[in-house]
Amino acid sequence: MKIRQSNSDNLTCKVYIHENKKEENFIVSIPDIFFSIQYDYDLYGESLIEHLYLHLFNILDEKEAGELAMRIAQWTSEV
How many domains does the chain have? Predict the structure, then answer.
């Protein structure tokens, strides 16, 4: 499991990223905002950012959701 710190103007939180290589998916959890999501390797790039944004937009404002979605997509591509 990887733990990353996300810092922005209005939100600072830890992002927990678990890669399940056997089932080919990621689990991302952000306890500070009561958010978690699981998605397959098939989802990447712009489609991943959009998918994450749509789920985060329910919890955060537009700007924060967009920034965090891009960070998560980048971090999971590095894992």
Answer: 1
| Helix, coil or strand: residue 55 | helix
The predicted-structure confidence for 11-61, as pLDDT tens digits, reads as follows 999 999 999 999 999 999 999 999 999 999 999 999 999 999 999 999 999
Structural domain containing residue 57:
2-78
Residue in the block written with tokens 């306890």: 31
CA distance 75 to 54: 18
3-state secondary structure at position 10: coil
CA angle centred on 53, ends 73 and 28, rounded to 5°: 50
> pTM of the entire structure?
0.93
Residues 6+ positions from 40 with CB-CB distance below 8 Å: 24, 25
